[in-house]
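Morning F.,

Quick status update on the modeling queue. The single chain you submitted on Monday has been processed. Sequence for confirmation:
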Amino acid sequence: MIFTFYSFKGGVGRTMALANVAELLYQRGLKVLMVDFDLEAPGLERFFDVSNQDEKPEKRNIPEVLYSPNEVIQQRGVIDLLLSYKQSYSFHLPNQESENTSQGSKEDKIPFTVEPINNFIVPLYAQNDKGGKLDIIPSGSRGEQEFQEYVRKVHSFDWNDFYARYRGKEFFESFREELLKSADVVLIDSRTGVTEMGGVCTYQLADVVVMFVAPNGQNIYGSLKMAQSLSNPDLLKKDGNGRKLYLVTVPSRVDNNEKQLLDDFQEEFDEKFREYIPDKMRMRLESLQKSAFLYLKIPYVPFYSFKEKVAVRDADKASASDLSEAYENLVSALIRLSPELYKKTHRNTSLLYLSSLAGLCQHYSNGYPNNKWKRVFDEDQDILRKKIIREWNDILPPVVDDLITAIYQNEPIDKSILGSANKLITEQINATLDVENDNDEQAIDNPLENDNMENDIQSKSGIESKVSVEKQNDSFFAFVGKILFSKTEST
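Structure tokens below.
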């Protein structure tokens, strides 16, 4: 999935947010590729400079950097890739007649780069124990000796000519495909304002546009106009080939000390941008009983405005906790827009513990605890609860946590809480299974509303015998979920 980080004005913390999001996704085991498309004001690589860390080398919470910023800027990047393609296209100029007939070769019809995209990818972090990796395509070669040449390349690049004479639209569709093959998630740092580069990064390349809105009139007005444009189906059909485009608006540089101004900004932000919240995110916010503003707002922390620092590396420090939490919330929100990313970032838990929680709910369905789940899972309740909390701490709504607490304390629980928890758990499992609206027959029903499900759970050995067969196909966890949702007799 491709996320484009965009802002109407500069100085809103867009690039810093991208660096923090990249760091968190890497920590979660994803292969992350950053693309510095802010050609006129590049510098994304500076956030991965170990010399900017205040701690001694042995205490730095950062992996070993394979290429330092000074080494990254020596490498070719986006502008070099574009020029390489133009040169290649000139040597392989398609025949005009073949363009307009069915006789043209595939090579004539599909633009290509003379070099593979890997030639422009610079590794930053090696693969971690979760499989995560972090790479970057810089803006272009702009070391001390090359900087003036870089400026010339960027200023002389004619975007209108590129689209008119070099099949720019087809090139970027091809480029998008190559990006998706190169990583689990691609993060593009876009140019600000209304520019050709911004249009490429948003309409043509992105699946999700993450737009940062600072608390002033220029930012709010410009961001709102861009939100309206990015939601225009005619423009999306023309420039994005009809691809669905999510828009996530993020209030940024929010000063929590100015209480009245903060409340005013929240009211204006929620009023103007509420309609652009993706449905998947809206459901999450409703379950948390929070507005998008409160969940996604990124506070202004003066310390992190000096140098290029990545706050999530200091998550254990009180000084960075608010900013780190904000970026964690943003990552959680973005991951939920992609079932593939969601599954990959929760691969270690799969559905088993969420399903086990559903099983606990079912055995609690009369409002009072019983011990049947112990026979099913053969695990100490305290251990099971801790596993659930540890593995699902970023996706469990508060009502589910209340349920876990009641189960843990072996106390009766209000049926309304139980019902709400069951509903949310069911939604989470179906979302994790990536059950689409047009395939509802595969969805798991709410266990409290289903009186007809077959009683499959008789004993732990019974589950094992079924599991041994079901392990052979991809529906294993769906099967486990359905078993755990089965109605059973209280003990």
